[in-house]
């Protein structure tokens, strides 16, 4: 039996992006057609682009990799930090801390595929070494900061290099 996988999502106004991770639907089940959601970007403000340039050689020293989120927990005594345990394709777990708890609950990120810079020097935060940086998109909307962790197709294997 073949299945179609249909993500179930909350409305855009919701604080949380996904209601349930994935819902299996039989191939024979009717697929409900919905109109594409129009997003109003007229109230969105983004930071201006940098005026300084970076030469290609410097840019190419940053090692961007797909990482699978194996575990994610809130860091005790911190309102902002989440501690990620990541599969970066090396066979050893990587720990990265990210100050995105205001935007995501840890359990909704487990199993997702994200993008990280993996060759930054370790940075100690709250007594834990963070070995890299997860990539997010940030903008302001009606005076409120919005953040979206960059997540990619789960078919991309852990450790895949981004160019």
Structural class, from secondary structure content? mainly beta
In whole angstroms, how far apart are the ends? 38 Å
Overall strand count: 13
| Mean pLDDT reading | 85
Element pattern in H and E: EEEHEEEEEEEEEE
Beta percentage is 35-45%
Task: Give the oligomeric state.
Answer: single chain
Description:
With 163 residues, the protein is mainly beta. It is built from one helix and 13 strands, in the order βββαββββββββββ. It has one helix at residues 56-59; strands spanning 3-9, 18-26, 44-45, 64-74, 82-87, 93-98, 113-117, 123-125, 128-130, 133-134, 136-141, 144-149, 151-152. The strands form four sheets. Strands 4, 5, 6, 7, 10 and 13 form a six-stranded antiparallel sheet that branches. It has a three-stranded antiparallel sheet with strand order 3-11-12, with no helix packed on it. A two-stranded antiparallel sheet has the order 1-2. The termini are far apart. Residues 1-22 have low confidence and may be disordered.
């Amino acid at each position: 039996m073949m299945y179609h996988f249909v993500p179930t999502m909350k409305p855009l106004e919701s604080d949380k992006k996904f209601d349930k991770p994935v819902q299996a639907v039989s191939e024979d089940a009717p697929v409900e057609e919905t109109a594409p959601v129009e997003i109003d970007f007229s109230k969105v403000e983004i930071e201006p682009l940098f005026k300084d340039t970076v030469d290609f050689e410097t840019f190419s020293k940053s090692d961007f990799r797909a990482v699978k989120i194996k575990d994610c927990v809130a860091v005790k005594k911190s309102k902002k930090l989440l501690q990620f345990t990541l599969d970066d394709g090396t066979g050893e777990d990587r720990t990265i801390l990210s100050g995105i708890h205001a935007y995501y609950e840890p359990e909704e990120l487990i199993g997702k595929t994200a993008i990280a810079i993996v060759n930054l020097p370790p940075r100690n935060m709250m007594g834990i070494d963070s070995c890299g940086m997860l990539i997010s998109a940030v903008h302001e909307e009606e005076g409120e900061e919005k953040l979206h962790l960059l997540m990619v197709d789960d078919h991309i294997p852990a450790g895949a290099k981004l160019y």
